[in-house]
Amino acid sequence: MALQPTSDHNPSLKADYASPTENHKFEHPLKALPTPFSTADKTAYLSALRSEVTHLQKEMNTFLTAKMEEDKAISVQRTGVIDDKQEEENYGEEVVEDEN
Asked: How would DSSP label each residue in 26-92?
């Protein structure tokens, strides 16, 4: 895979969330590589991209955690209890990592 710099393109990092009840778009603009670009330019671009990916992951995790809490609140309103089995089915089993 090669980087293809273009002067008329404004790159961005994008992710889409879609559910039966809601759609949400995440987007982070990136600086375009200058034309022509040097190794230092490419290194700086990739460093910025890595940083934006990390930022996007955090933003998405925050959003998804809020969605899970909303789902849990709706479930409690309907049934009066938290359905652990349904949560596992929807989100997977919680895995607690050992810090040893």
From this structure: EEEE-PPPPSS--HHHHHHHHHHHHHHHHHHHHHHHHHHHHHHHHHHHHHHHHHSS--HHHHHHHH-
Burial letters 61-96, b for 16+ CB under 10 A, else e: eeeeeebeeeebeebeeeeeeeeeeebeeeeeeeee
The model's pLDDT over 13-28, given as tens digits with 9 standing for 90+, comes to 999 999 888 899 999 9
Mean pLDDT across the chain: 82
Task: Decide: residue 33, CB within 10 A, 0-12 exposed, 13-18 middle, 19+ buried.
Answer: buried
Contact by Cβ (8 Å): 13, 56: yes
* Residues 36 and 59: beta-carbon distance below 8 Å: no
Residues 6+ apart with CB under 8 A from 87: 68, 72
End-to-end CA distance of the chain: give it in Å, rounded. 38
